[in-house]
Amino acid sequence: MNASEARLGPHVVTLGTAGGPRWWNSPGGSQRSGISTAVVVQGRVYLVDCGQGTGRQLKNAGFEMDQVRGLFITHMHSDHTVDLASMILFSQFERKKPTLGPIAVYGPGPRGKLPPLSARATSVPEAVAPANPGPGIEQLFEALSTAYATDINDRIFDSLTRPPSTHFDVHDIVIPEGTDFDPNDNVCPDMEPFTIFKDDHVEVTAILVSHHPTAPAFAFRFDTAEGSVTISGDTAPCRNLVRIAKGTDLLMHEAIDLEIIAAQYTDQALMNATMDHHRRAHTTARQAGELATQAGAGSLVLHHLVPAFAPAESWLKAQETFTGQLFVPEDLETISFASIPRTTSDTAVETVKAIS
User: For residue 291, how many C-alpha atoms fall within 13 Å in the half-sphere facing its CB?
Assistant: First the structure.
């Protein structure tokens, strides 16, 4: 850990700030990578979500994979998991210290059943992989390793690399007993946050959030000796999010502009069904501000921006419901979550000035 990092204290780096399974086109604007956040505590890196470009952005931020000690997946949607394959494959060369233990990986367990069919459906579609239609994080890692076995075995036998099992220790998150969770009928029952990971730098707690029909879906909170950050994952406004974020120094919350996203569809049937999902499973900037206020968060970051090219005005609506410090960062910005919020990013400073 260098001197500037020590002064900054615990912080996040926005590796990717775009949401959705899209390659967003942003004419004349910045290009946002897929959603991923690095939580940095005393030189250790804990990743939340692994969207498109996470590995490359990790390097662009100046980090090495040897610094990564944890990887936490909020839910199993592709825009949060798509770069797991490159993390698995490239770790054989990017993790250079053979004495390092594996990276702890935590994510949702198996869904257990197919999601309910849209009320707009006119026929019943054929499920993909009907014998196991909702694998969790452990099964995903196993399936990816199997799919890339040719490459992995070439490296192991020819280049003498270590197999993925030595680089990642993967765990399905076990929902506490007595929680009235059902992946179709009760995706976000009232509950208390529960610890899923702890080391000598950070304690990570999780709680179910409302991202129907995707379930389970989690928000995560990282508590350190100097401050805390809560990351919402994808969710509609819900009491559980407020509960886990209570008094947090920094809340990082998803945001969607419903009007602009609706205009992206040309297929009317697809638009109708997808917008049903967006309205029940996501949060507008104004609603995110309300949640931050209810939680008593010190500062609010809006990320997982959908669509990624929406103008700043879409996200600044959060200031109508939240009077604290608001960040709408680009990729690769650094924001402290020490008890006195600070930033090393000129862009973020300009954003704060614009909304204060």
Answer: 32
